[in-house]
Known about the structure:
Blueprint: E1 10-14, H1 19-32, E2 35-42, H2 50-58, E3 66-70, H3 72-85, H4 102-116, E4 120-122, H5 131-142, E5 147-149, H6 160-169, E6 185-188, E7 193-196, E8 226-233, E9 236-240, E10 243-244, H7 247-261, E11 265-271, E12 277-283, H8 285-301, H9 304-322, H10 329-341, E13 347-354, E14 357-364, H11 372-375, H12 388-411
Helix pairs in contact: 3-7, 4-5, 7-8, 9-10
Amino acid sequence: MSSKKLNPRKVVLAYSGGLDTSIILKWLKTEYDCEVVTFTADLGQGEELEPAREKAIMLGIKPENIYIEDLREEFVRDFVFPMFRANAVYEGLYLLGTSIARPLISKRLVEIAQETGADAVAHGATGKGNDQVRFELSAYALNPEIKVIAPWREWDLTSRTRLLEFAEAHQIPIAKDKRGEAPFSVDANLLHTSSEGKVLEDPAEEAPDYVYQRSVHPEDAPDTPEVIEISFEKGDAVAINGEALSPATILTRLNEYGRIHGIGRLDFVENRFVGMKSRGIYETPGGTILLEAHRGIEQITLDSGAGHLKDSLMPRYAELIYNGFWFSPEREMLQAAIDKSQEHVTGTVRLKLYKGHVRTIGRWSDHSLYSEAHVTFEEDAGAYDQTDAAGFIQLNALRLKLLAARNRRLKS
Length: 412
């Protein structure tokens, strides 16, 4: 439905305090003559958020209509960690840093709308990207009656020049570095940074090193490896080097380890849900370490049947998150199966960090399924009767023998 037909009385806007969302804020007020509530989430993007409050007040928003919330712990505990229990990667490479943040933002937009009596929410995603889908599917899943306004699909401010003209006409401050075309766009949170557009649009050209913001170049990383240990309980990281930490603190600390050692860089051409291919530069330093560690502890605690089934479910699970279906019944069904698989994924993993790489070098657990007595090349004291393998092989070979016999017969 076109927002022209919505006639909202009060709108909750996902507001960063930047130029684009400040223009959207003013556009909503002038276009609809409606009350605007701003919501700014601290998801660990690394920016000071108080200027967003000052900017909103300057643009005429009442102080009681300004929401700035630290959601870092909820983000990691309730969204990032459940996703990492699944070892979720989209198209084999992308750790879904932007995708997993959108349902939490949408959840709070809808909740604030309920708290303030607003009948609409608004976001700054463009009509070409995935985020519009993620924001809106999440919002409708949580409140089917909510109205959603997407200005980039409605207005005629389709060029940088028009945006700047609108800003100047409405006394919206424009930083000097915003008057020219930005070399690329950035989305950031505690899990990752995502850079797209402009200088990055040609996938044949190597990304300039200045695009990378969260990690040193692997070639410039320390020449000495660093060894760390991560402990898990039921699939979630709970401690680093024996020190118990909160979810957000764990990811923050792993980000620092990854930054120092140049870990987690990705140059990726992905398939957007809306149909086009897009080239992005991603940095997920802590997440890359966490994924390696989680797979390391699963190696000794997860049954092979459960593990192989879980791996077969993962691409579908990752696709659901990427496409915006976090609040769908099928994602919740898969999550229940994944969480069941994690009941004994408890223990500690030792990892070596070195020049852009992280690898598991040790793992141990009271819940381990690994039996040295069964796999040893030395005398196994009767733990395993090797003659049992003959019958096992014969049973598994039966259909292959029948196929071979038939094929030989038909050729003769």
